[in-house]
Design goal:
This protein is α/β, with parallel strands linked by helices. Helices cover 38% and strands 16% of the residues. Helix 3 packs across helix 10 and helix 4 packs across helix 5.
Length: 307
């Protein structure tokens, strides 16, 4: 693990931003430009498709997928991002597990506020089940807002009476729209990505006046996680959303959920996106791939060994 690598990533993320609030279009363009700098494996192929009446990206190994499916939810504060901006993450999970992935292009705020994103991700999961895929062969995964969706989509599926997936992997998930975690303030000085003001700005677009005190918006403090599948949460210490992860893990443990809280020191929000640049990113993705391969195998489905 290299302090020099961590410093390089920190400098990249702290590039000066324009003064004053940015428009939604400027925020989206800036995020696309940042994520275009991330490394995508050359051992995958992508295909545009539809899933649950929404556009989606199908990601597969070049030599074809094994018997397992990752339903991947991209990050972006529910306001920006796309399956393409998350391809460094989806692609590395696919390359490491041999599974195929679907990444739905769920609707974004402010044009489509809560609960549009959850409606779309739940619809994507229904579509996989309706196509004949066994829930034991499906895992949810996501980063940031998409990490939050991996939890809230599972809540919505359980409440709808659907069978739950085999496992969940959440990278730096956003899990508390009430913004009550202590790390929102104690970590602001070391977080190179977010400030409280920034997440409250985009969060307000997603809420559109909705009360944040409800499980589908703040699962870290309000959700009953009873019956959830095994859960892996990966988070860095240099992020204001750290307590979203620690509190959700505590809630999961309290109701008997098999949960791994995987905290990496001195790395930023969704540090896994820096695979190939940051040793900790590659190591975390290796752990996530092993977790997925083991859990889908434990559910009784054939699988491809972790590569």
């Amino acid at each position: 693990m290299s302090k020099a690598q961590r410093a390089e990533v920190d400098v990249m993320l702290r590039q000066p931003q324009p003064e004053g609030p940015r428009s939604v279009e400027e925020i989206r363009a800036g995020f696309r430009a940042l994520m275009a700098r991330m490394t995508v494996p050359d051992t995958i192929r992508t295909t545009r498709t539809t899933l649950g009446n929404r556009p989606a990206l199908r990601v597969e190994p070049h030599d074809g997928p094994g018997a397992g499916t990752i339903l991947y939810f991209h990050g972006g504060g529910f306001v920006f991002g796309s399956p393409e901006t998350a391809l460094s993450l989806t692609g590395h999970l696919v390359a490491r597990t041999g599974f195929g992935a679907h990444s739905p292009d769920y609707r974004l705020a402010p044009e489509h506020p809560f609960p549009a994103a959850i409606d779309d991700t739940l619809s994507a999961y229904r579509a996989l089940l309706d196509s004949g895929e066994a829930p034991s062969s499906i895992a949810f995964a996501g980063d940031s807002a998409g990490g939050g969706l991996s939890i809230t989509t599972c809540l919505a599926a359980r409440d709808a009476g659907l069978p739950l997936p085999a496992a969940i992997v959440a990278f730096s998930p956003s899990l508390d729209a009430t913004r009550t975690g202590r790390s929102m303030d104690t970590k602001e000085a070391v977080d190179p990505v977010f400030t409280r003001k920034a997440v409250e700005h985009t969060g307000a677009m997603y809420l559109a006046g909705a009360d944040p005190h409800q499980p589908l918006l703040s699962p870290a403090v309000l959700a009953d996680l009873t019956g959830f599948p095994p859960l892996l949460i990966q988070v860095g210490t240099n992020e204001i959303l750290l307590d979203d992860s620690t509190r959700l893990a505590e809630r999961a443990r309290s109701v008997g959920v098999d949960v791994i809280l995987d905290v990496t020191a001195d790395v930023p929000h969704v540090f896994q996106a820096f695979a190939g640049v940051l040793d900790e990113a590659d190591e975390a993705l290796d752990r996530a791939a092993l977790f997925l391969s083991q859990r889908i195998r434990a559910a009784g489905t054939p699988h491809t060994s972790t590569k």
